[in-house]
Structure to design on (98 residues):
């Protein structure tokens, strides 16, 4: 259902039967992992014009993997990681299936 590099790729699917009898297929909820136990690949100091996708592109080789940086820093909202230039953020080692 999702690309292998998607944060949702490993999630199970479920079905719900609506009151009118329709079967609705959906992806189960993804709970945010705890970032600190993740092995650190690098630490990056956020620059004035940085965006999380640009940092992901530089460090992980794919801007769409920004969610891995969010997970490693326990961030629900990507912008909160780059709204403070000079801040140091963790880049976790990418692990398959997460």
């Amino acid at each position: 259902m999702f690309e292998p590099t998607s944060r949702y790729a490993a999630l199970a699917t479920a079905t719900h039967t609506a009151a009118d009898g329709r079967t609705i297929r959906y992806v189960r909820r993804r709970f945010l992992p705890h970032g600190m136990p993740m092995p650190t690949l690098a630490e990056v100091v956020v620059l004035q014009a940085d965006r999380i996708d640009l940092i992901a592109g530089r460090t992980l080789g794919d801007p769409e993997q920004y969610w891995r940086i969010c997970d490693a820093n326990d961030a629900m909202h990507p912008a909160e990681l780059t709204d403070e230039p000079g801040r140091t953020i963790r880049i976790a080692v990418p692990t398959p299936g997460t």
Summary: The longest strand covers residues 40-45. The first helix runs from residue 52 to 60.
